[in-house]
Design goal:
The structure is a homodimer of 333-residue chains. With 333 residues, the first copy, chain A, is α/β, with parallel strands linked by helices. Chain A folds into three domains: 3-44, 434 Repressor (Amino-terminal Domain) (Orthogonal Bundle); 58-159 and 293-323, Rossmann fold; 161-290, Response regulator (Rossmann fold), CATH 3.40.50.2300. Helix content of chain A is 44%, strand content 15%.
Amino acid sequence: MNIKTLAGQLGFSVSTVSKALNDSHEISTETKRKVLELAKQLNYTPNAYAGSLRNKKSNNIAVVLPEVADSFFSQAINGIESVAQEKGYHVIVYLTHEKQRKEQTILDDFRSGRVDGVLMSVSCETTSTDHIRRLCDKKIPVVFFDRVIEDIAVARVVTNDFEAARKATIELMAKGCRQLAFVALSDKVAIMNHRLEGFKKALQDKGLLFDDRMLVNCTSSEAQTQKALKHLLTSASRPDGVLVSAEKPATDIYSICNEIGLNIPADLKVIAFSSMQIAALLHPPLSTITQPAFEMGKTAASLLFKALEKSNFKLEREFVVVPSLFFERASSK
Amino acid sequence: MNIKTLAGQLGFSVSTVSKALNDSHEISTETKRKVLELAKQLNYTPNAYAGSLRNKKSNNIAVVLPEVADSFFSQAINGIESVAQEKGYHVIVYLTHEKQRKEQTILDDFRSGRVDGVLMSVSCETTSTDHIRRLCDKKIPVVFFDRVIEDIAVARVVTNDFEAARKATIELMAKGCRQLAFVALSDKVAIMNHRLEGFKKALQDKGLLFDDRMLVNCTSSEAQTQKALKHLLTSASRPDGVLVSAEKPATDIYSICNEIGLNIPADLKVIAFSSMQIAALLHPPLSTITQPAFEMGKTAASLLFKALEKSNFKLEREFVVVPSLFFERASSK
């Protein structure tokens, strides 16, 4: 019993049957149905197909996220769902709450086959990649989106972090800012470093020096982050502009400015990486670098399903950049 | 082989063994270990214990939600996690996207033992309770929070929906509103009806009639909801005040007012049920009825774990009301 017998009985070519088993877009739904039906009937399970069957057993894909109280992540989930639903898969959301240890436990748990594939954005604490390697060793496909790790061969979907940050910084300088601050979510996450590099490059091109005191790294403790931001905004050499690389600290800055009586944008211009749909409703409306969250989730999920459906798809080589959009609003005018 | 034999062999009282099997806090870890070890060795499985073992096998609890892009739900998840983490359980989030059919598929999938217990807020479409009954039949404990169904004996954690809505309506009338509208998420969800009843009661006590045209029911289609809200706000007999029973339509109303040039609060006063942490940063700051989201999640999870740990706990009788707080801000002044 091999693929030739199958092809012979169906009156199709071997290539057609092979493509049908790998769910190729070149093959019609009707042909696929016929091939799969006979394959099932004859209990035909070549390696690739068996692999595919093995990978598909739970019909669940996992989305591992630092948190959901962030517009980017909640919209990305919707993008992921839009693909999964079509494929008849469940999406299950696991939260790391920005803890590397929790992320490790969650991923290790997947090795038992609880899920068929994993989409993830790493926690701001994650420095080790052992737990991700252990998952890859089990042949469970993984796609990183947004917050990626770069020193491991895993598929990645990101935005143009360096360029978006560079342009936003140029924008702030064009509006008259001379003392610019950068708020990072963490110094451990690669995309944050790209954004910081873009920020530094813009300063450098303008002949401005980067001042270490103008860099705030958020932590998983909200209270600590707020303290650091307040310190920045009340210091003698406080910035007159700030590029914020995440949503939560941007709204923290609004609250602190309200509290200490700094006027946005007169005293401080603000641009933030944020997918917040109500950015335009804030007082003042917040200028944002908006990642196409839904698109990024959708793209990441599409890659994952390609890997689940085609055993010869080299998932780990995939690297997709989905550009962000800049929305200028009153906070940076 | 019964509990007496077990007690005899261990040299403990029957009561001690029984409590140990039910994981009572009165019994030391060491004693529990001894009892469980011998029980396992002798394959001792009285009904309650078998049930308990069966319930505990996955170490996962499910949180089934309509969506996560809502501050209430994202904060409630954190409250749930705070309890689950302490108990060594994983929290897995499943999204129904407000579809009854999706909710049914998800719950039916749990019957295989994928999760040990379920915390849920029903979709705005959910009218049938069959899928919940099927889960209960499998002895998988369920706790509803926020969006509950009332015609089924399941534990419930809610806020004081009727009273909070009544008081907010009185507040709007005290500020001069005479034509009040109510925006409901759905006419199928019990808590929405309680809120609507509270709204109507306040009108009635003031001698005002409830006008059907002043009621907008949101749907799972955002575009449809926005159209209905725009229709309401541009009609000849448009309201001068609105009580909004969910977060998303409240921000939709802000956007529409911006678009059509209605001033909040001069032309329209707004109070919304919302746990949005940035309500105070909106323009104008939004008055909210804020559900204690974290507390409600925590309470619901605590009830679920009580049921998982104590086989004689009558979970289905539990009904907890956690009161909301009213924050008056510029939108209703």
